[in-house]
Amino acid sequence: MDEDDLRRWAHRAADWSADYLAGVGDRPVRAQVAPGEIFRQLPAAPPEAGEPMEAIFADLDRLILPGMTHWQHPRFFAYFPANASPPSLVAEFVTAAMAAQCMLWQTSPAATELESRVTDWLRAMIGLPAGFSGVIQDSASGATLAALLTARERALGHAGNRDGLAGRAPVRVYASAQVHSSVDKAVRIAGIGDANLVRIPVAGPLHGMDPEALEAAIVADRAAGRLPAAVVACLGGTSIGACDPIDAVARVARRHGLFLHVDAAWAGSAMICPEFRDLMRGAEAADSLVFNPHKWLFTHFDCSAHFVRDPGALTDTLGLRPPFLRTLGHEGVTDYSEWSVPLGRRFRALKLWFVIRSYGVAGLQEMIRRHVAWAGELAERVAAHPDFELVTGPILSLLTFRYAPGGAGDLDALNERLLARINDDGRTYLTQTRHDGRFVIRFQIGQTTTTREDVLTAWQAVEEIAGALRREEAG
Ligand code: PLP
How many CB atoms lie within 10 A of CB 38? Predict the structure, then answer.
């Protein structure tokens, strides 16, 4: 392909993208294929000779699209959103054109300096005070791992990195059962071990960690010769949106000298609206906080904003400077690869810059406020319905419910069958969780192009499919 071909195919890709996004609402939201169906249609061997782009594009429509679940569909209400937007898409395109590897300041000074600037914008946008430094990580999982490694090394006086963990007092991490499994994974990778992730019970309407139980667990561990190191608080847990009382948790962590990491992967974006910030009260006392603009801030995956109070503690833990990575003549510059587990880094700041400038803070706030308002309205409908039960929420734009018509037997099994029917129907896509031992259906609102009408259409589909299922099963 020469430049003229690139121009032609890039235009074609732009047209394809605009057409796809304009029509995505007419497709079934979740892919309607069986496991292996796409794989079987793909040739077992790569082509020996190059193929025309026309043929590749034709196969994109014929083979790949039917196997896609449409995350930008306006009635995608499953998991958490990954809500992209046109300005972010354009930025991703030009980022791909430059294809820069932004591991060091000198490998692209603009990438590093823009990252410093836009993370500082984000910090201010969510109401975190100056004094936190930001970095864009590949994922919240990566940020949490970086935070727990830092916490481990702080507790061990950097002896873990130097000598390993063998023969040391067990390093302890505290979190409720509502935190994302990325915390469990980080604890494993950091060599802390499942047995040293201490689960603190939750209480109250936000299903938040009980600070007194946290205090008691730390005191008991110290008395037993263990090494309390970190607390992970959740702000918007994945299952039902649980929020820990961060201020009370932070007081306990401070009193005992523990590192506090806040996982706000989903809910953090909503903190750009001051009226929701009660949920993060106390976060200014954290050592580390992560949230994902790639979830709910209209920015393409991957883009996790990670804020740390003491970047030196992070770079002392993760930073290595072999001679081949030194920036000669500018030793004091920021090399963001020292802030994360991977060395190589994409230029992720550009899409954030496009998004924030294109919508403005007010435009972004407006979209998130609408999602939260529609979730409130939907929750009222669910609660008012005689055959449905609102189980949790709404917490911001996430609620859970279940179908509980009078006289039904095993409600877990009934709701599982209902969910399968809903997702086979294709008008919307919802996913499940377990809450208090019960199977419940989650409904989160966060798509860029979703309207109130889409929410009502999805709910109508749920009501209709549930009624039909019940009639069918009754006889
Ligand atoms: N934390 C929470 C609360 C999440 O909901 C998720 C993903 O849904 C994660 C962490 C992991 O995010 P990532 O995919 O960026 O690692």
Answer: 15
Q: What is the dihedral of CA 56, 58, 59, 62, to 10 degrees?
A: 170
Is 96 domain-assigned?
no
Q: Residues 29-52: pLDDT tens digits? A: 999 999 999 999 999 999 999 999
Q: Whose CA is nearest to atom 5 of ligand 1?
A: 238
Residue 475 has pLDDT above 80, yes or no: no
pTM value is: 0.95
Contact call for residues 347 and 101 (beta carbons, < 8 A): no
Position 250 in a domain = yes
- CA 267 to ligand 1: nearest atom: 3
Residue 408 pLDDT more than 80?
no
Does residue 270 lie within any of the structural domains? yes
CATH number at residue 297: 3.40.640.10
Report the distance separating Cα 400 and Cα 419, nearest Å: 13
ipTM of the complex: 0.98
Task: Tell me, using a 6 A CB cutoff, whether residue 180 lines ligand 1.
Answer: yes
Cα(417) to centroid of ligand 1, in Å?
A: 27
264 CA to centre of ligand 1 in angstroms: 9
Ligand 1 pocket residue status of 258, Cβ below 6 Å: no
Q: Do 41 and 148 sit in the same domain of this protein?
A: no
Sign of CA dihedral 325, 311, 356, 298: positive
User: From the CB of 265, is ligand 1 less than 6 Å away?
Assistant: yes
Structural domain boundaries, residue 248:
101-346
Q: Percentage of the chain surpassing pLDDT 90?
A: 95
